[in-house]
Structures are given as structure tokens and as C-alpha cells.
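C-alpha cells help. One example:
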Amino acid sequence: MSSVPHTPDLPLERDSLRRGFGVASAVIRTGLRNLKAVSFWTAIVLPFTYVPLLVGGLTGGEALLFAGLIAINALAFVGGHGYEPTESTEPRRA
């Protein structure tokens, strides 16, 4: 019985790695796009929560809550910057 040396099929392994990186890249892009969408809509909706706080007056803990909401809204503006709502409904172009 002769022993034939086995050489790994490198092109197949590279293709598998490329596909794996492609899938990981697509997952990351989708996650970032979703995070941008959530940030965009949070920046739009969050100011409506200011009204009850301002109408009732800011006392003690409410002033801190209001400042926190302002900070979260600022972060949402930055995170959602550049998001276009039509971007999620259009088919992706390759």
C-alpha cells in the first residue's frame, strides 16, 4: 500500500474564508444601518417627552432627568445623522 501525500485544497479554503468574511461584513452593515435608524427615530420622538416635564415644572430629580434626556437626544442626533428613511424600504443594489 503506497502512501500518497495529501495537499490541502487552498483555493477552496480561501473561498470559504471570503464567504465567511462577506457574511460577517453584511451582518455588521445591517446592524449599523439598524442602529442608525433607531438613533434617527429616537432623535425625532424623544423631544415629545420634554413637554410633560416642562409643563409640570422641573423639580429636584426631574431636572436631572431632563438633562439626561437632552444628552440622550444629542447622542441620538449624532448616531442617526445621515440616515434616510427610504434607505430601509428600497432594494439593495449590489
Summary: The chain has a mean pLDDT of 82. The longest helix spans residues 10-45. The chain has three helices and no strands. The two ends are 52 Å apart (CA to CA).
